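job 3f2a | input accepted
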Amino acid sequence: MAAALPQMYPDQFSQSSVVGSQDLRIMDSKVMSGVLAASVTGNLIAGSRVKFDSANTQAGKLVFVAAADNETAHGVIIKTAQKTQFTGGDMIEVAYSGGPVVYFCASTTIAPGTGVGQATGFLVAADGTHSTMGLLIDAAVESAMVRVIIGHVAC
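job 3f2a | predicted structure (155 res):
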């Protein structure tokens, strides 16, 4: 009798995204790595409130802009070993509050920073028909694999 082969988790080596799998790189640290949008003028310091740049259309690339005092922030910039002041185009680390980061398949184009829900198993922008389950962090186009912070709490 042949021995049973071990069952391998499809993403155990972080080589592919599978709907429903978690992005452990973000989730374990509660820190997202991204870039400060080139449109940001002036300096932001560690502790500055930021939000996702809704103009970003590149899937998998997290782009942030400064959040005004009257806007919902998606996180705060944390200091790095090299810097405490940041300008447009700089790589930044952003601490956030929320639950697991999970991959989903998008049903249509949705901007990063949008509250999202589900319809027939696909990700949609939250509205009166679809309740918010989390916050989209990637730029979404139809059938794209994107990441969502489940139960995101705004800063």
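job 3f2a | The helical segments are 24-27.
job 3f2a | closed
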